Amino acid sequence: MRNFISYEKSLEILENIKTKTPTIKKMFLTDALGHVIAQDIIADHNSPEFPTSAMDGYAIKAEDLNSEKLITIIDKNPAGSVVESEVSQGVCIKTFTGSLMPKGSDTLIPIENVEVIEDKIKIIKKVPKGFSIREVGENYKKDDILIKKGTIISFAEVGVLASLNIAQIGVFVSPTVAIASTGSEILDLGEIKTNDSQIRSSNHLTIEALCKKAGADVIQMGIVKDDINSITQLLQTGLQKADIVITTGGVSVGDYDFVQDVIKDKLNAEILFHGVTVKPGMHLLAALKDDKLIIALPGFAYSSTVCAILYVLPFIYKLKQSKQKLPIVKAKINQDFPRRIPKTIFTACNVEYINGNYEINFDGKRKGTSAILTNMLETPALLIQKDDSEDIKAGEMVDILLLDQLK
Ligand SMILES: Nc1nc2c(c(=O)[nH]1)N[C@H]1C(S)=C(S)[C@@H](COP(=O)(O)OP(=O)(O)OC[C@H]3O[C@@H](n4cnc5c(N)ncnc54)[C@H](O)[C@@H]3O)O[C@H]1N2
Ligand code: MOO
């Protein structure tokens, strides 16, 4: 008899798995996109290092703002150069965006605010003292922690690292995931159909896509028939090469559901749980073998996809040392939604962001078995009903998982 555990308990078991010390590798900045940074990044200088002009204009002394007298232009100060001449009362230096402010100056009067008369300027519109000067450390100060260890590298991190002259960055090595789909009725892409009961396998590729999006390296092992020896061999190969091995199909109660037998009896893996009170995905099996995680997902396309999101993605985040979490937010539901069964239920819905709130509806969503993957197309989310939740009434706030924000 199978011992079904709650969704919360199953998550807790996976969260508590001890993982080995992560390895770190160096990568060139832009190649490191999506990887998790392995050390705090601390500024080794102020930015800017010196007072810098934020506009094209004339560097002056503020006292001259209140004088009716013309101010003499004594020099030109293009960005990238350092002028020797100094600003004093009655004289100015033409200075450009990105140029250092010349010695003696404390204000930048923009070109638009002056009239040039031969080699002099007349101020026609005043600015406050200190105008348009980027102060030392405006962007960041020396010794500031700019990027924290555990951050996922995105465009802004690339830019900040570049401004620190860091070309190679230490990142945590991403986990490797081996994926296979089991079933004598499923065909890989391009395989010729030889009888009416055969269907195309989507699971192995849906899960590859999810894992790659989460930054894992994927070993695609394809399709294997419902045969104990083939499944054993495949799982052994996966365990040799990957940190996580994922299968789909063959975990429920049918005569040909061999995946569970292989994991339990052939591999002698430590079963963490087999059966969770979730819908879809009740037959899910998680096991450990030689510190590798095996997740055997149900065969139905919607079930395996939802369970890969709920179980595989958080484990990838954990192995790659990322602090990211599944994107769960509150949303307003547009219809009554009774609680059907005492399980944690994940139902596909449409989500829109309207006037600062997420709102969900079920327009066009099909009802039927856990085979319906098309319910995840367009603007999808999953409504989450906890196993102890009440019937939901239209207009109430509910928990949803935003599928298009999965990373
Ligand atoms: N008597 C019972 N029958 C079933 C139960 C049960 O409790 N008692 N549970 C049902 C539920 S819930 C699920 S979920 C499935 C899970 O079964 P398996 O994990 O053993 O999966 P399969 O039987 O191999 O396949 C189920 C279904 O999905 C199709 N499939 C399989 N692989 C793929 C693939 N790679 N891509 C797309 N579709 C796939 C397969 O053809 C089946 O239709 O068991 C229920 N039965
Ligand atoms: O548990 Mo099954 O995955 O509901 O369809």
UniProtKB/TrEMBL annotation:
<keyword id="KW-1133">Transmembrane helix</keyword>
<feature type="domain" description="MoaB/Mog">
    <location>
        <begin position="178"/>
        <end position="318"/>
    </location>
</feature>
<keyword id="KW-0500">Molybdenum</keyword>
<dbReference type="InterPro" id="IPR001453">
    <property type="entry name" value="MoaB/Mog_dom"/>
</dbReference>
<comment type="pathway">
    <text>Cofactor biosynthesis; molybdopterin biosynthesis.</text>
</comment>
<dbReference type="InterPro" id="IPR005110">
    <property type="entry name" value="MoeA_linker/N"/>
</dbReference>
<keyword id="KW-0472">Membrane</keyword>
<dbReference type="GO" id="GO:0046872">
    <property type="term" value="F:metal ion binding"/>
</dbReference>
<dbReference type="InterPro" id="IPR036425">
    <property type="entry name" value="MoaB/Mog-like_dom_sf"/>
</dbReference>
<keyword id="KW-0501">Molybdenum cofactor biosynthesis</keyword>
<dbReference type="GO" id="GO:0061599">
    <property type="term" value="F:molybdopterin molybdotransferase activity"/>
</dbReference>
<dbReference type="InterPro" id="IPR036688">
    <property type="entry name" value="MoeA_C_domain_IV_sf"/>
</dbReference>
<dbReference type="InterPro" id="IPR036135">
    <property type="entry name" value="MoeA_linker/N_sf"/>
</dbReference>
<protein>
    <recommendedName>
        <fullName>Molybdopterin molybdenumtransferase</fullName>
        <ecNumber>2.10.1.1</ecNumber>
    </recommendedName>
</protein>
<keyword id="KW-0479">Metal-binding</keyword>
<dbReference type="GO" id="GO:0005829">
    <property type="term" value="C:cytosol"/>
</dbReference>
<dbReference type="Pfam" id="PF00994">
    <property type="entry name" value="MoCF_biosynth"/>
</dbReference>
<comment type="function">
    <text>Catalyzes the insertion of molybdate into adenylated molybdopterin with the concomitant release of AMP.</text>
</comment>
<keyword id="KW-0460">Magnesium</keyword>
<dbReference type="Pfam" id="PF03453">
    <property type="entry name" value="MoeA_N"/>
</dbReference>
<keyword id="KW-0812">Transmembrane</keyword>
<keyword id="KW-0808">Transferase</keyword>
<dbReference type="InterPro" id="IPR038987">
    <property type="entry name" value="MoeA-like"/>
</dbReference>
<dbReference type="GO" id="GO:0006777">
    <property type="term" value="P:Mo-molybdopterin cofactor biosynthetic process"/>
</dbReference>
<comment type="similarity">
    <text>Belongs to the MoeA family.</text>
</comment>
<feature type="transmembrane region" description="Helical">
    <location>
        <begin position="293"/>
        <end position="317"/>
    </location>
</feature>
